[in-house]
Predict the 3D structure of the following.
Amino acid sequence: MDANHSALISAIRSGDTRSLARAISGVENRSPGWSDLLKAVFPYTGKARVIGMTGAPGAGKSTLVDQLARLYRKQDRTVAIVAVDPTSPYTGGAILGDRIRMQDHFSDAGIYIRSMATRGSLGGLARTTADVTTLLDASGRDLILIETVGVGQDEVDIVRLADITVVILVPGMGDDVQTIKAGIMEIADIFVINKSDREGAERVEREIRALQALATRQDGWTPPIVKTVASDGTGVAELAHAIAGYEEFLQKENRALRKSVENWQERLVQMLRDAMLEKARVHLGDINALAAEIAEHKRDPYTVVEEIAKLP
Ligand SMILES: Nc1nc2c(ncn2[C@@H]2O[C@H](COP(=O)(O)OP(=O)(O)OP(=O)(O)O)[C@@H](O)[C@H]2O)c(=O)[nH]1
Ligand SMILES: [Mg+2]
């Protein structure tokens, strides 16, 4: 990456996609200067609306993201799509499908699509997704749609980046709602029952409503349930409407800011943990040797941690 970021930053802010792509790669790979670049663009961020779309493998997330992106483009809003971990082994076939669908947009500069590096990438999936979102935000995109498979902690962290989280369920997976991680249920601002052309959509809706009756959200928001058939576009306008409704709700009583403060609390702790660990690792030497000494009771773990934590 350039030692002098100012040219790169103006290029990114002017919407130049090649510069944006270069910056994203640099940040993903932790190339020299990556953190200076993020520091420099941060003041230009906070304007994009970030929408997290999460759900089980094959639920139709990409199809739905694609439809939403089309709809927003018709409203003349610019869109970025972040596909997290698209090489996940769940549905090998979907990767090609994604490519084909993405190609539809290639002629449209108003849509920028980025696939995230796979798991195990430098910096961790959640952290790099956050950094990439920061760059996309700085590039002036109106909307950032993040697609992620809702299975683990990484995904919960990723959707915490979002202003609005859409959880996508499908009928016909047995006890759908019960099998969805509790954490994912709790973060839903909007529920989508996709593949509503299939039998069982009503049942899923009843299950969600039953769960909602058990626990009300602190902020008083009851996540609406939208039925869609992403493959033919049914319900997509309703989903956009539900998203707009939640945006409106966020604008009242300072909720957007409060939510952002909450998100940053989480992220700051995460970033600090990463930074401290990184710092300690330099002094840690051979962690295996230390672990062996502790296992053999030659040393105690309390002193070891104290010594490492005290290091400058
Ligand atoms: N019947 C039906 N099929 C759908 C619908 N939405 C998507 N599909 C199909 O479901 C398959 C998976 O769709 P994707 O959009 O790739 O699903 P995904 O959740 O992004 O999948 P992964 O990224 O692999 O987790 C594709 O063959 C779609 O055409 C729908 O509403 N009804
Ligand atoms: Mg997908």
